[in-house]
């Protein structure tokens, strides 16, 4: 075998091992986030949710909804922690450039994590969360055989109709605003344009809601904290309190 072919084979083998390592690291990170989110949801949920259901079918539906919600929360937590993880990994690589054991914190891993988070965020936003909500509310079509699959069919149909309704409203709005064939034709590029725009718009709405609710939350938190905590009496003037007590005693004595 020629040296050039050996080098190319070695490069392909190294690339294959890097891909396998990245997949293992991503799977371990997501499994850790999923377990953490499962404990968080089961800690804050009501004791009657997902467990105290006498019907086996309802219990299975609630467990599936719990799994979908846990998956979505894990993706959201991964999206929040991805930027700090990228910054920390870059600083670690700059601090220890020759260390063999931390070379897996490379740009390819971070880029792959960003792509996976963006993909699963759109999947959770467009499909998983609406499916979980409609799945818990579904009962199956009238006249059909009861079971999990009947609920799955009803949820899929409702979700498909909702998707067509949203796409139709967007199409009409785009036609009214653009009023040309290019604006209507651009709706066919759904995956390339409109899903990122939808994700960005919902993210912007979440940020605005956070900015709106944060001051009220902080004011409520400080109000509740002020009611629960006892104010310190180290700086109080005892002579002033004694004089006030004497004045109150004198006023009560005159009334008597």
TrEMBL record:
Which Pfam families does the UniProt entry name for this protein?
Answer: LMBR1 (PF04791)
Top-level taxonomy: Eukaryota, Metazoa, Chordata, Craniata, Vertebrata
Is this entry keyworded Ribonucleoprotein?
no
This protein's membrane topology, according to the annotation, is: Multi-pass membrane protein
Which parts of the chain span the membrane according to its record? 24-44, 64-88, 108-136, 157-177, 197-224
Q: Does the keyword Transmembrane apply?
A: yes
The protein's UniProt keywords, in alphabetical order, are: Cell membrane, Endocytosis, Endoplasmic reticulum, Membrane, Receptor, Transmembrane, Transmembrane helix, Wnt signaling pathway
Q: Which gene encodes it?
A: Lmbr1l_1
Name of protein? LMBRL protein
Q: Name one GO cellular component term.
A: plasma membrane
Gene Ontology biological-process entries: receptor-mediated endocytosis; Wnt signaling pathway
Its annotated compartments are: Cell membrane; Endoplasmic reticulum membrane
Q: What is its main location?
A: membrane
Native source organism of the sequence: Uria aalge
Record GO terms (molecular function): transmembrane signaling receptor activity
Query: What family is reported?
Result: Belongs to the LIMR family.
